[in-house]
Amino acid sequence: NAGVTQTPKFQVLKTGQSMTLQCAQDMNHNSMYWYRQDPGMGLRLIYYSASEGTTDKGEVPNGYNVSRLNKREFSLRLESAAPSQTSVYFCASSGPGGLWYFGPGTRLTVT
Amino acid sequence: QKEVEQDPGPLSVPEGAIVSLNCTYSNSAFQYFMWYRQYSRKGPELLMYTYSSGNKEDGRFTAQVDKSSKYISLFIRDSQPSDSATYLCAMSAGGTSYGKLTFGQGTILTVHP
After folding, report:
1. A98, A102, A107 member nearest B96 (Cβ)
2. Which of A108, B37, B44, B78 has the most CB atoms less than 10 A away?
3. Inter-chain contact A33–B43, Cβ cutoff 8 Å?
């Protein structure tokens, strides 16, 4: 039981490049989330998926797109990376009982 | 004004001290209250989970929720150097598997031997 896994762990992009962050969970959770963490800002919700086939915007969705590929997988795409998207990205999932579990994070630097 | 306010610290205490971490919030719909611990360069891990008002104890950790004051606390007794981490409070109004967590900014704690 790996919990929530994320790939890659680290990534450096140039401004304007695109990339997809991958997330998978093996806890059979319905809900999945993407957060970003910046110094002094805590974690801010980018997008979430309440169930397979649905996605909704969170607090800071601009510049991102998501895909809920199936119940296990939820990806985050940056179409044209900007320096303001330099951050640590966390994927999370939640199930019955309302407990959230987080992945190890992806450190993204956009130059 | 942010929905959840948390003093970012940093907080530095000697080993064995009692640590008190606090958050205030403005959304009266919040019912689920969590504390996460995050070690450097790691993901947040769930430490304590409380529904509605009251206290919950788990070993050296005690979580308190006062909904009337919109105030939550985490107490760490007999603090250890291994407790050095960032502590994040988080809250949700949702009660099912769907719901959005709102986080405080996190408090950086260092426990020195």
Report:
1. A98
2. B44
3. no
Write the secondary structure of A64-82 as one string of H (helix), E (strand) and C (coil): EEEEECCCCEEEEEECCCC
Give Cα separations from B74 to A75, B36, B50 (angstroms).
33, 10, 11
In angstroms, the Cα distances linking B112 to B12, B13, B18, B81, B82 are 7, 6, 13, 6, 9
Interface test with B, best of A94, A99, A101, A106 (most B CBs within 10 A): A94
Residue among A43, A99, A104 whose CB faces B49 most closely: A99
- pLDDT, tens digit only, all 111 positions of chain A: 679 999 999 999 999 999 999 999 999 999 999 999 998 778 999 999 988 889 999 989 999 999 998 999 999 999 999 999 999 999 999 887 667 899 999 999 999
